[in-house]
Amino acid sequence: MTLSNKKPFIAGNWKMFKTIPEALELVKEILLAVEETSSSEIVVIPPYTALSRIQDLIRDSAIKLGAQNIFWEEEGAFTGEIAPTMLKDAGCDYVVIGHSERRQYFGETNATVNKKIQSALKHKILPIMCIGESLEERETGKTIEKVKKQINEGLEGINPEEVEKIIIAYEPLWAIGTGLTASPEQAQEIHSYIRSKLTEKYGNKTGSCAIILYGGSVKPANAFSLLKEKDINGALIGGAALKSESFIEIAKEAIKAYEEK
Ligand code: 13P
Questions:
Q1: What is the C-alpha separation between 47 and 84, in angstroms, rounded?
Q2: Which ligand 1 atom sits nearest the alpha carbon of residue 96?
Q3: Which of the following is catalytic: 41, 108, 164, 171?
Q4: What CATH class is the domain 9-260?
Q5: Handedness of CA 255, 256, 259, 261 (dihedral sign)
Q6: Euclidean distance between the first and final Cα of the chain, in Å?
Q7: Active site residue 171
Q8: Which helix (H) or strand (E) holds 53?
Q9: Annotated catalytic, 191?
């Protein structure tokens, strides 16, 4: 699969929410709006338990499936982990790697993020690598330094053609689940930095084609102004992705914003 930022990329990270029946219900509702949202790339990222059941529903549609985590080994005695082949088997095209909640509560580091990215790429699963600064880092002027380190170490040893298959999600920690959103200007500043960093490291093509998502309290009311920014190519949505109305509305706002860019 090749990636393009010619249309907005709208992904719903359901985190640890939804039983199987609830998950199927939500996907059925999203499927009803598939035509209205067809000018965007829609990805649902449910908990593991619902993956293959959802895949059965979306198989023939434009909606794509993602997982919230991955392990780097092929198989083995790793209780509680999930192998890349298992995600492939369940129908995943995408996988979130290094979400701030995994870094914060489950000890993930740039080094483990790097191993996971390499493993996902090897199995043709497209990584969505999450990066972002804490409130303290922002307030002490360390945002760029943090993001730079996460990019350098997370992408260590990955060649430009492979980097083109990686989506970057900028999710400032202080904006996740807090109702506080980065302003479009604040988000654009970091997105532009990320793109320039990719260009500097991997060349013009990789930089200009990169899909860079914003995440952190995205909702229908702020999606348009965020997505209208030059370097914001989509959204990674938590809370507002748990209801079909708000998720679909965000996709429609993103499409409008892209039309006006
Ligand atoms: P919220 O949209 O709930 O702030 O979550 C963002 C997020 O973490 C998506 O991965």
A1: 15
A2: 10
A3: 171
A4: alpha beta
A5: negative
A6: 25
A7: yes
A8: helix 51-58
A9: no
DSSP string, 59-91: TTSS-EEEES---SSSSSS-TT---HHHHHHTT
Phi, psi of 236 (to 5 degrees): -110, 115
Q: What is the pLDDT of residues 63-108, one digit of tens each?
A: 999 999 999 999 999 999 999 999 999 999 999 999 999 999 999 9
What tens digit of pLDDT does each residue of 192-220 get? 999 999 999 999 999 999 999 999 999 99
Where do the structural domains in the chain lie, given as residue ranges? 9-260
DSSP state of 140: T
**Ligand 1, CB cutoff 6 Å, lining residues:** 13, 99, 171, 176-177, 215-218, 236-240
pLDDT at 39 over 70: yes
Q: Is this structure's pTM higher than 0.70? A: yes
Which structure tokens are listed for 200? 């500097």
